[in-house]
From TrEMBL:
The gene is Aadac. PROSITE patterns: LIPASE_GDXG_SER (PS01174). Pfam families: Abhydrolase_3. It comes from Ceuthmochares aereus. SUPFAM superfamilies: alpha/beta-Hydrolases (SSF53474). The chain crosses the membrane at residues 7-23. Keywords: Disulfide bond, Hydrolase, Membrane, Transmembrane, Transmembrane helix. It comes from the Eukaryota. One of its GO terms (cellular component) is membrane. Residues 109-268, 316-378 form the Alpha/beta hydrolase fold-3 domain. This is AAAD deacetylase. InterPro entries: AB_hydrolase_3, AB_hydrolase_fold, Arylacetamide_deacetylase, GDXG_lipolytic_enzyme, Lipase_GDXG_put_SER_AS.
Amino acid sequence: VDMGSKLLCLFFVSALLAYYIYIPLPEDFSEPWKVMLISASMKTFGHLAGAAELLGLMHYMEAFNLFACMDCVAPTSDENVTVTDTEFNSVAVRLYLPRKVSDGLRRAVIYFHGGGWCLGDAAEKSYDLLTRWTSGRLNAVVVSVNYRLAPKYRFPIPFEDVYSVTKFLLQSNVLSQYGVDPDRVCVAGDSAGGNLAAAVAQQLLQDSEVKTKLKAQALIYPALQTLDLNSPSFQDNANKPLLSTWLMVRFLSEYFTSDPSLREAMASNRHVPVEASHLLQFVNWSNLLPEELKKDHVYTTPTYGSSELAQKYPGFLDVRAAPLLASDAQLQELPLTYILTCEHDVLRDDGFMYAARLRAAGVPVTHDHAKDTFHGAMSFISPPADLAVGHRLFNRYIEWLNENL
């Protein structure tokens, strides 16, 4: 083959790669090439999962999860923490027990990983690091929950798994077995895990069997509502790194069903039936967002969808799936709250709306808003995808826990 053809080939391959890797990023992103490579690898996994589904080999989410769990690590203890895989109430957990001698009872963090209720594992390298460092730096017992995932186990099973682990740990005999102070227990999670943490904190308030109260909840770019998927953040960040509007709609709909009619209704924001219209006040961004996030967006009530969908899949109107649907009275008793949001994230407005509603209900809230980053940034704290912004967000989260838990 002559040199010209080789060069032409090289040019096409380079152009294709550049097209695939290069995405326009906001100017304030640090380490833009790292972000592009992370985004490109996610895109590749998504395309491969889509191909597997089209060929009838495997469900999209199950194929995607194979890639997500490629970097799972065995439970490995180190000089700071003893790590074991075990079960609490028949639910798989990874347990981190600090080795440092404690002069009194320890704090505890129950952590729920993200992944749209469909992906992820407590053993993923990034989650293992996050929970291991949390245990070491806070000298805290950390329970990272491997709840069962959709599409195999749909709502409410993932919620029930994390709830039963939390309830198990909060028993006084279990707390004392691990040397945990009953007044210093926190639930935390990122993304779908933040959704589960918020739902667990709400549910515990109504559970007469639980005597121990949570001290705090930490919600990292949480998904908190299923009703309005057209808020300014959904519109402005539809194609930003890691979590597009399309993927978020797919995650949300898969949590309840693989029926494409729910996904299509959610994608066009026409899934809320008129009989649930009273719930829209709880997610009305025109009342709950600060002016600078509204920009030139004009609020319109979503177009009402069929009652049939909501009757078939009532989960998406359930407060355990959409914690923003809790009434003001239900929010009042919630513990100290930490919320992290990212500017370039479809879920940004969920966190802002919850912070506004919690404050109005008198709950002490610390809301950190990271203007220079995207959804999932805190997961990138280990090589090769090691982002400075990921470490910054993680350190901020740990500082808050250290001061408040």
